[in-house]
Recover the amino acids of this structure.
């Protein structure tokens, strides 16, 4: 859902991207700096709870939003590369682990159900991009789903920030449980995309098998071409 805002965000980041490129900053440096900012804000502030949790969300949100900046810089400078794509994807996993891991650590004793919900988000969330990557390595388009990374981050950070400002803790707990369920559903959606593609492969294989059998029975004809009967052969003599 929130992934559809990427074109808008890319347009917003054009000016700062050009400014950083003018200073000689490499897009990969921005990727790494953004991840360091997210990890620092999560590990230092989220486990403290209360208002510190709110400020942690502010820090994390700033660096998460700048995640669009490195991609815009790479496109503007023509410095898109396999290394950049690898860093972007891998460090996204590091950032997610820091955010949800910090929530697990912060609530492990204070409120175990919230810690469990954060752990489920962390675990299931790691399956979502893997399911897509594996499907696409097999030539299957498995993008989309009801809970992409941007959706999970925006919703979880919003709930965390409001609880830091004083909302009841159950708001965060149930938000995380629901996000974990949505993540599992998204994995199921991407798995079904592979299942459908596999069924199409099997249908194509069966069609080819029938054509080969038809050709074996009537080798003088092309596969799938109806064979002539004996009268036709006699007429041709």
């Amino acid at each position: 859902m929130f992934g559809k805002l990427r074109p808008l965000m890319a347009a917003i980041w054009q000016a700062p991207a050009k400014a950083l490129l003018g200073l000689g900053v490499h897009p990969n440096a921005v990727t790494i700096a953004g991840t360091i900012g997210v990890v620092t804000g999560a590990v230092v502030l989220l486990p403290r709870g209360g208002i510190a949790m709110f400020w942690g969300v502010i820090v994390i949100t700033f660096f998460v939003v700048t995640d669009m900046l490195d991609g815009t810089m790479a496109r503007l400078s023509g410095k898109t590369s396999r290394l950049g794509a690898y860093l972007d994807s891998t460090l996204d996993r590091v950032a997610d682990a820091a955010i949800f891991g910090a929530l697990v650590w912060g609530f492990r004793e204070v409120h175990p159900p919230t810690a469990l919900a954060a752990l489920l988000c962390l675990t299931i969330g790691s399956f979502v991009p893997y399911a897509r990557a594996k499907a696409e390595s097999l030539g299957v388009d498995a993008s989309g789903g009801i809970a992409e990374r941007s959706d999970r981050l925006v919703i979880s950070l919003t709930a965390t920030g409001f609880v830091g400002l004083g909302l009841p803790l159950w708001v965060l707990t149930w938000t995380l449980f629901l996000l974990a369920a949505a993540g599992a559903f998204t994995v199921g959606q991407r798995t079904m995309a592979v299942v459908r593609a596999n069924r199409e492969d099997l249908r194509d294989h069966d069609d080819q098998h029938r054509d080969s059998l038809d050709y074996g029975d009537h080798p003088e004809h092309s596969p799938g071409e109806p064979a002539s009967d004996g009268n036709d052969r006699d007429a041709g003599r």
Q: What stands out?
A: Confidence is low (pLDDT under 50) at residues 230-237. The chain has ten helices and no strands. The two ends are 70 Å apart (CA to CA). The CA atoms of residues 53 and 152 lie 18 Å apart.
